[in-house]
Amino acid sequence: MFRFELHHQDAGTAARLSTFHTPHGPVQMPAFMPVGTQGTVKGLTAQQIAATGAQMVLSNTYHLALRPGDEVVRDLGGLHAMMGWSGPILTDSGGFQVYSLAERTVVSEEQAVFRSHIDGSTIELSPERAIAIQQNLGSDVAMVLDHVVALPCPPEQLREATERSIRWAARCQAVAQRPDQCLFAIVQGGLDPVLRVDCAERLASMNFPGYAVGGLSVGETPDQMRETLQATMPAMLADRPRYLMGVGRPEDLLMAIGLGIDLFDCVMPTRNGRNALAFTDAGPIRLRNLKHQRDPKPLESGCPCAACRHSRGYLRHLFVAGEMLGPILLTIHNLTYYQRLLAASREAIAADRFAQFCTERRAGWSDAG
Amino acid sequence: MFRFELHHQDAGTAARLSTFHTPHGPVQMPAFMPVGTQGTVKGLTAQQIAATGAQMVLSNTYHLALRPGDEVVRDLGGLHAMMGWSGPILTDSGGFQVYSLAERTVVSEEQAVFRSHIDGSTIELSPERAIAIQQNLGSDVAMVLDHVVALPCPPEQLREATERSIRWAARCQAVAQRPDQCLFAIVQGGLDPVLRVDCAERLASMNFPGYAVGGLSVGETPDQMRETLQATMPAMLADRPRYLMGVGRPEDLLMAIGLGIDLFDCVMPTRNGRNALAFTDAGPIRLRNLKHQRDPKPLESGCPCAACRHSRGYLRHLFVAGEMLGPILLTIHNLTYYQRLLAASREAIAADRFAQFCTERRAGWSDAG
Question: What is the ipTM of this complex?
Answer without folding.
Answer: 0.96
